[in-house]
Amino acid sequence: MSLQPLPAARRLTWLRWSCTTAMGLSLWCAGAALAFDVQGHRGARALAPENTLYGFQRALAIGVSTLELDVVLSAEGVPIVSHDTTANPDITRDPSGRWLQSRGQPFHTLTLAQIAALDVGRINPSSRYARDFPQQVAVDGERIPTLAAVLDLVKRQRADHVRFNIELKRNPERPQESPDPEAFVRAVLDVLRTQGMASRTSLQGFDWSLLKIAQRLAPEVPLAFLSAQRPRFNTLRTGAWSGGLREADFKDAPALLATAGARLWSPNFNDIDRKLIERAREEGLRVIPWTVNEVPDMERLIDWGVDGIITDHPERLRVVMEQRGMALPPTVDTAPARQN
């Protein structure tokens, strides 16, 4: 027997509750006419080069409510958009056009000029990555953009309804690959404030120590607490990622999140079930899982009442939502504003 989706009235009630009670969520909710958040993961990674201006344009054209992206710093302390703290050989070619053979120096030791010389417009065809995303269209010459360039792009597109969910990339088990944590957070906040985009942005991270810094420096900016409980990557087990808190010391993950001060939880979608989502509600948490790409998983999670989905396939998610009579985010005519 199929599960029934969360009624629209109940979903809206939850949105109003979270807007009025959760620290830092009032601005998150101000621009959200819909309770369900369609987040394009790294733009639209399954269809276009990840974390590139072209990829974000593709997501806007498909129609998302939020652009999900990742940031690190350059040697000058400028936020740039990259999922990895070092260049990923699966998607990166050097200035001569050759695929990188290994991960090089951390980005925070490279200048903007050195970073801009890297081509991230296609996937290395010999990599597993290429098999995972066979539909991705190559766009040779795409570069790693600065955070400011992404914000400028959305302004030029006049996509005033679109929000940003920015992951602060840092591995606490390899701190040498990242800059000073407070300097990192300050640099990102400076760009958001200069661009007037802080009110349209949430910050997320697996390393909750960065979120604690962000909450202190910008309590008005919503935070999303990422987690993974996979056999090879469990961010709640030792406390290294989760601010010293360990799941073994709590009733369950939602109890740990509540103790950490979370109001928005983004778990790996494989780590949750309907009961755990209900527990999250009891702890006052909104739930937006990552990274959901298959239609049956999208359907199940919507039926369970999640508040949004982070996906490499926003076009698939829109079809699922349309079939359920859910309102869709506007699409954006991106043709006039293409600039690199």
Automatic annotation (TrEMBL):
Pfam families on file = GDPD
**Could you cite one Gene Ontology molecular function of this protein?**
phosphoric diester hydrolase activity
Identify the residues that the record assigns to the GP-PDE domain, covering every copy: 36-321
What PROSITE patterns does the annotation carry? GP_PDE, PIPLC_X_DOMAIN
Its EC number(s) = 3.1.4.-
GO biological process, any: lipid metabolic process
Keywords from the UniProt entry: Hydrolase
**Can you say what this protein is called?**
Glycerophosphoryl diester phosphodiesterase
